[in-house]
Amino acid sequence: MKRGHLIALVVIALLVGALMVTIQDASTYATFELAERKAPEQVTVVGQLDLDQPITFNAQTSMLRFTAIDKDGQRCVVYFNQPKPTDFERAEEVTLTGMSSGDTAFFAQDILMKCPSKYADEAKLSAP
Amino acid sequence: MDYIGEHTFWALAGRFFTYLAFTGALGTALFYGVNWLRPGACSGPDELGRTKAPDPAYLNAGRGAFALHSLGVLGVLGVLLTAILSRWFEFDYVWRHSSRDLPIEYVFSALWEGQEGSFLIWMLWHVVLGWILLRSARSWEHGTMTVVGLVQLLLTSMLLGVYVFGAKIGSSPFTLIRELPENLGLSWTTIKDYLIRIPAFRDGQGLNPLLQNYWMVIHPPTLFLGFAATLIPFAYAVAGWVERRPVDWVTPALPWVFFGVGVLGTGILMGGAWAYEALSFGGFWAWDPVENASLVPWITLVAAGHVMFIVKKKKSSGGLTAILTFLSFILVLYSTFLTRSGVLGDSSVHSFVDLGLNGQLMLLLGFFAAGSLLLLLLRWNALPKNAADEAFSSREFWLVIGSLVLLLSAVQISFSTSIPVLNKLIGPDGLIPILGEAMAPPADVFRHYHSIQIPVAIVVSLFMAAVPFLRWDATPNELLRRVLPSLAVSLVLSALAAWGLKFDQPMYTVLLFTGMFAAVANLDYWLRYLRGTWRSGGLALAHLGFALILLGALISNGKKQAISQNPVFLHKDFPANEHILLPLRDTVSMHPYWVEWSGERREGHFQLYDVHFYGTNPDQTPGKKLFTLSPYIQLNPRMGNVREPSTKHYWDRDIYTYVSFADMRSSDEKASGWSEEMVATMGRGEEVFVFDEFMMRCDSIIVNDALMVQETGDLATLDMTARLTLKHMDGRRETVDVPYQVRGNQASPGEAEFPKLGVKARFEGVSDEPGRFKMTFWRKTPEEQEFILLQAFIFPYINVLWLGVVLLAIGSGMAVAKRLAGPKAAPKA
Q1: How many CB atoms lie within 10 A of CB B651?
Q2: What is the span of the domain harbouring residue A88?
Q3: What gap in Å lies between CA B738 and CA B662, rounded to an integer?
Q4: The total number of structural domains that make up chain A
Q5: Considering only CB atoms, which chain A residues are within 8 Å of B789?
Q6: Where in chain B are the domains?
Q7: What pTM does this model have?
């Protein structure tokens, strides 16, 4: 066997290894129900804020507590141990990365908010 | 119909220039292409062995067409710039990306904020580079310019904004808002003077406040120049492979590759500098998909550049070189697709508007990917045959291995970044549903990328250190010994650094050593073996620069220290976070400093928070004042407020802070002591639940006095009172009367307080529903100390990184200069 082939094999093996690691590391998009079943595995939940429920932020512990609604319409209390993001209430969609506590709450480690298009809509032209 | 105040002439001019650019690109591709692909002309003898000289008429036509194309691109840019500068908000692009108060220096940022604008700047660079290519390519002009024309044709099509059989082709930056599909047929579009009548047209949406930063003025054009630079090697590679000259094309393409490496590398890290200065990411690199998408083509371009030397010297590895060169350009297109198609919406802080051009973007990408693949398959047997393997001790062998390692790194980053794309393809709702559940990007991106990219960086830096000392063909053993001094020096240096900086993670420590080795070895190589000459120093300096980038990134990130700590203990599994609470004018310990927040002030759009840093005395009390940082919040009512950091730079470390939380209520609201404003509509006898703990009841509405104007029946005077009863859940109750008066046209809402329960009500007026009234309620804000939350990091030795970027740029520039200066005897290694 030529050395070139050997190198090709090694490269392919490394490549497969790297991709396996990636797939291993990938988290899953889940609903709150799935997150609960998978706890304590890290998942990603895409949902909306429930603006009818209180959004409270305790500055002493910098703990944010709010309620989110997932794509199935299920509500869940979310704790986020970080300062409240600016204009949090205006987010039209939130992507929560974290894990379910196993019963009633979801602990988010990271929150990605989607906003800008909403402002565009607000400013959309209306007929006089 | 003629609308008043519209600049339809300019819209027409813009469209005209777009079509001119399109036609020009078509002509370029066509005229050059005919000359190039005619059997027997540039691409070698025809099947009967005849050769023909290129037809000068076609050549001139091709050049003329490219001139027209260039004029078109410049015209489009000129008109768009005029529209933004003149604030013509009837243009959708101008309205979406700029506003009246946009400072002049950010007009360019507004120009390239949107998709159309970024395509334009990209095309402009293609035009500029295209002219240099046209004047320098000589016999390659036909093939390369055909490719440039073809690429420009497809890029210009992204700006056409026409509908063909119902399919949208491109999106024109000159579309008027009233011409947008969603507005067609709306009643306001038939008003002649709608621009004056509708307030929304008086001002635009404004530029995203995140982009109002000087780095954002220079980062996109630099990045796009780097992107554009990948086109030229691509064009040479295509020309070379079509013409069955898979070795010859490398020599003229080499300077372009290193030009691209330098510019793209600088551009990427300018983005990092922007993220570091304007974003509260807490660092210069976040493995964000948009950053990754620009990094990956750079990695493959670097790999391509290195194997090109093998092709040039040894006439081997031609296949790998072509693959990497094709890949670099295709990955640039892919990067555009990723960032512009909206597919990353869930996974990136950069969110882009989907213009509905995904199909077209995918066609563009597919065309070049499939074309390159086809070319490789059709012409693979034109490669020179090499019977013998490269020797283990040869430079070419390790260059190949090195570029494969880089390719591996690029594939992994691409794959992880493409998870949202994979979902679209094979996810549960994708085209071919293979996956049971959708994949999400890794929860801890840093851990994920570092687990693979740090070993890659270790291997790459080892190669950078040792391979320059190897010779082509084979290296005698005594030459290998030349690397020993730098090995010894870097071992000592990295041991000292690891001890001084308290490195404890084995992987980081190894990278610290290999990075140091790469830096020292290349310095040594340049000073001792190349005698420190400028002409030949490109390789060593660029390697040194990249080694310093790795070292700077490693030390500043690996030893990044969060000095702000929240002292409140929550739970052992839920660590306290890294945000410190700063009460107003209170001096708080933030080891190794004491900090005091002295208040907030307003400067234009910025709300600044002055934080004074004091040293710590030996007895742990606050020492003398060292410096003041003013992190700020950029106020933007339209797009949301943005927290911006403030950093104190020392030569060996940065102290980086930003306000992670501040009470953003207006000072009036804070001073009045009333907050949590809520609006309710009430009728007599109705109850509403307020502030989660009270029940508000409207007992009665009493009209005390009402006078009508006899002739018209309008109200002249009205005096009325609403009697409200507020009940707390614990049984406390309080009743007050809220007045409301009308005098002619003047209505004066009355207010009343519930002093015991701490609630205030205002009678706003009648509601649209008969018999109901609008009320606003506030509750008393408890007396509280004003505070902010602050996050502070120390980034040690981050200047090493920036120095590395400068050296990489200079080194690449010198490499380009050397190739341009022509083939002189290279110094012996």
Answers
A1: 6
A2: 28-122
A3: 34
A4: 1
A5: 59, 62, 83
A6: 1-207, 668-780
A7: 0.86
